[in-house]
Write a structure and sequence with these properties.
Elements: E1 11-14, H1 22-25, E2 31-35, H2 46-53, E3 58-62, H3 71-83, E4 88-93, H4 95-109, H5 116-120, E5 131-135, E6 147-152, E7 157-162, E8 170-173, H6 183-201, H7 209-231, H8 236-249, H9 263-275, H10 279-293, H11 295-308, H12 317-334, H13 351-362, H14 375-384
Parallel strand pairs: 1-8, 2-3, 2-4, 4-5, 5-8
Antiparallel strand pairs: 6-7
Helix pairs in contact: 3-4, 6-7, 6-8, 6-10, 7-8, 9-10, 10-11, 10-12, 10-14, 11-12, 13-14
Length: 386
């Protein structure tokens, strides 16, 4: 097992009725900017619950953060923060709203010339404006980590950011919110969380036995509850296990002591930036081809995954590893998630070369757990995903 450090300061309030405890977590003198997305929280009762819990606080609202948090929209919110002298941020939404709030947390205290530099220069935020979250859509675990991904439509780019100053102070996770989530978003959340685990697991063995078992248990739980959540989002037991699995998938625990990949995410981000494809679906497009292209380097873990997660016991190591990739694709298909780029856009030709050139221009020349995937390799993987 590799050396590691682990610190996660986020307080989790999990379960029914926890939104009522929101006011206990906020500084009494806080001037709060409440951030949310397209307005679904006003239809499903969450907005009213949050507003009731905020009674007595000075609250300014900013809605309209899109599914891929857009830089120009966030700059409008940043103006509100400065004009209104906001002291505390509250994200009420899914990963996109929380990611956007993290950018604002960093940008509000940033002293440089342009907040865009935080993204393109990979500036780690050591201290941001304090914020909390009320999770409405399980998927990204942004409610319990310090990372975010921001999109800029003007340049068709999508960049990650983060730093120790961007952990939420608290996050409220009430599984009852799952009952109002549309099936497409439920499928995206399951796929996103599942792929988060794969990115931290599907590398090579380093003797991290417990970490492997943690990762495998999260994937097994998602596989078990996925059909129940899709069939009946109001199934509280299934919703609770789905929500907590999504959080555990990327809260920092399972990545410690083991190598990580993340090349699938880096390629997937480009497909979202270029075509607007849902983030989770870009991961499902890229992952199977990525594993086939890197089969020799990953087959030990692929075979372990096939045996432990999918129960494949017959065949050689290579056969079990290859069958595991097929099982993964079938799982995505069971959620009505398509796994080839051509199923999402007729304009896929030339995409691989364009992405490879972008990676070259940015100096992203060594991706994956071994830091040996070149832009030319990226081009091949994307072409395999057509």
């Amino acid at each position: 097992m590799l050396n590691f450090e682990l610190k996660n300061p986020t307080k989790i309030l999990f379960g029914k009725g926890q939104i009522d405890n929101l006011n206990k977590e906020l500084p009494k003198d806080a001037k709060i900017l409440m951030l949310y997305g397209g307005g679904s929280i006003k239809k499903n009762g969450i907005y009213e619950q949050v507003k009731n819990a905020l009674h007595g606080f000075e609250v300014v609202e900013f809605g309209g953060i899109p599914a891929n948090p857009e830089y120009e929209v966030l700059l409008q919110a940043l103006k509100v923060i400065k004009a209104e002298k906001i002291t505390y941020l509250l994200a009420v939404g899914g990963g996109s709203v929380i990611d956007g709030t993290k950018f604002l947390s960093a940008a509000a205290l940033y002293e440089g010339d342009s907040p865009w530099d935080i993204l393109i220069k990979s500036i780690k935020t050591e201290k941001g404006m304090p914020f909390g979250t009320v999770l409405t859509l399980p998927a990204t675990a942004s409610e319990m980590n310090s990372g975010a991904v921001i999109t800029r439509a003007e340049t068709q780019e999508k960049f990650a950011m983060g730093g120790p100053g961007l952990f939420p102070e608290f996050s409220i996770l009430d599984p009852q919110v799952v009952a109002s989530i549309p099936q497409r978003q439920l499928a995206n959340g399951i796929t996103d969380a599942f792929t988060h685990v794969l990115e931290q697991y599907m590398t090579y063995p380093v003797g991290g036995y417990l970490q492997d078992r943690f990762a495998e248990s999260i994937m097994q739980t998602l596989i078990e509850v996925a059909p129940r959540v899709i069939k009946n989002p109001a199934d509280y037991e299934a919703a609770a296990n789905f929500m907590w699995s999504c959080t555990m998938a990327l809260n920092g625990l399972i990545q410690k002591g083991v190598p990580g990949d993340w090349a699938v995410h880096m390629m997937g981000h480009e497909l979202t930036a270029l075509f607007g494809i849902d983030h989770a679906r870009t991961l499902a497009i890229v992952a199977p081809s990525h594993y086939r292209f890197n089969f020799e380097a990953k087959k030990e873990k692929l075979a372990q995954y096939g045996q432990r997660v999918w129960g494949i016991t017959e065949g050689t190591k290579d056969e079990i590893a290859k069958a595991a990739i097929v099982k993964t694709e079938e799982f995505f298909h069971s959620l009505d998630i398509k796994t080839t780029l051509s199923e999402y856009t007729p304009d896929f030709k030339g995409t691989a070369e364009k992405i490879a050139n972008r990676f070259t221009d940015r100096g992203w020349v060594g991706l994956g757990e071994h830091k040996n995937l070149s832009p030319a390799n990226v081009q091949e993987i994307i072409e395999m995903s057509y």
